[in-house]
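Can't paste images in this forum, so I'm doing it all in text. The chain is below; anyone willing to post the predicted structure tokens underneath?
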Amino acid sequence: MPDPPIRIALLVYRGNPHSGGQGVYTRELAKELVALGHQVTVFAGQPWPQLTEGVGFVPVPSLDLYHPDHPFRPPLRPRAYRSWIDLLEVALMSTGAFPEPLTFSLRVRRLLAGRRGDFDLIHDNQCLGRGIGGLLDDGWPVLATLHHPITVDRAIDLSHAETLRRKLGLRRWYSFLRMQVRVLPRIPRVVTVSDSSRRDICAQMGARPEQVHVVPVGVDLDNFRPLPGVERVPGRIVCTTSSDMPLKGLVPLLEAVAKLRTERPEVELHVIGGLRQGTTIPAHLDRLGLDGAVAFHTGITSSAITELYASCQVACVPSLYEGFSLPAIEAMACAVPLVATTGGALPEVVGADGGAGLLVPPGDPSALAAALGRVLDDPGLRERQGQAGRERVLERFTWRRCAEATVVHYRAAIAEHAERSGRV
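Text version of the structure:
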């Protein structure tokens, strides 16, 4: 007799795929779970998720205080505040904290009250807010995905802060981590995306090794694929980054591009992603003489991203740390040769140096420039690495494999919860 389908409440506090990997994970995992016959309802805050047919959706409205058109602007009308949670959200934002993991979790706990019969399991996607602990207290079986420990982001951001004011501001912004470190050990089963993330989650966030399980994520192979009809532009490099935070290594890459252009003036960099308010990147572009050599693409479609990959000679992931790296496997799926750092899980994703890509130490512009130059100068190497990357993705990193492995952990979490509850 086949196992019955599972009814999943999938939670994500920022749902849009353009907001980062959490949104892509939610969209693609939900799509494949439904294709496997399970029922998925996504509970998400703004920016709203982009979901496929057959996936349910329950909005969890916030005050949307980080909307790009009007960031950090709370509503002026008193009627816009529907509960004490809204007031808490504004209060935390006003003091420099990031409130969304906490306030989303409190709102979603309210929405799920009285719905115990509608779902078999709650899957929390990296929120780990106090309300998630409340759902455990309410008797729900809960599984969480933690892509990587945000403690790493905090440490790297603090190491790059140049003033005491900036350091204090960052400590306040990352104050939600204290809550996550308290909630995480309470969740009986946690999924992460790499062995590197698993080690760091245990070392830095107090998780137990037996509590954390590795399920690699995948890539949309219908979209990210080779486009033989698109001509490669000599010297074109593509980098995908959802932000210009120090963690993502954009500044070392800009310095590498400047070095390359001293001998290869045709070199150009296309960055898929936007810049934060108050960013220092324009100053770096001026300092390095890169005006006109770097283009930023924001809000573009997946098909447009694939076309950019098809037009480049090499892709780069210059991050100082990655828990996995969707951009790496997207480029590999497009049969694009890759230069990446050894930060975090990137060697797990890319494989051995010289196979699907070249690996260099993180934060080293000279090493990046040398590796990028080597790929740009060697058509045979580009061809071999592109083919090897595509084969590696097909073998290891598909969303169907991710969904199937996640279902195994769903069933284990449900069975373990029933056993703890004395219902077996």
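The CA atoms of residues 285 and 291 lie 6 Å apart. The chain has a mean pLDDT of 94.
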